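Quick note —
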Amino acid sequence: MGIVETLRSLPRRIRDSVQQEGLWRFGLRIVLSPMYRAGALGTLPLDLHFGDSADSSLSMRVADEDDIEALVALGPEYYHEKLRARLGDRQQCLLAFLGETIVAVRWAGTGEAHLGDLALALPLREEEMYAYDAFVHPRYRGNGYAKAIRRALDEQWWQKGFRTHISFATLGRKPFGRYHPYNVATIRVLRLGPFRKLSVKTYGPKADYWRERLKELRWA
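Predicted structure written out below.
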């Protein structure tokens, strides 16, 4: 995200964060950052969006090492060594093209879900996949391309036998804010030198299941 896009999104992200965390926790996260991190864990059935209309103008394919240069050019968070390591470690990157131009990217993996900058990892079940690093080129946002690549990725993993899509997002970033209907937990981490405190709050009809499940969280 460029600096202009970041500045434009600040009022919305501040509003969403205050709604999701409350004013006191939001202030705490701002004052203590990077010592205090918080995010929401969401789970969706992979076939949830299969009935949505697809964007026929896009072509999709899985990235390989020949695409690393193009991915590095998309954004500063990508660099060569990180991408090579990802592609060689049970991770998959789906690319969406408009003509010859990459307009959207979405990563997915198995084994364990790495929860953003909380430095936590959650072991995954056999039927679960983890989707992360969804990105749409700023020039092409607002055209439904994020929705199209999400649907394509979920269909691919459904065909492989996976049934649950797990995502994680920092509070204040949609779609997995605290009040999203498919959110299952809010996870907070306070770090001060060697001291680390983890707190988890679960929601929804499977709150008890996820309370036990999240005891499997480990420091990554």
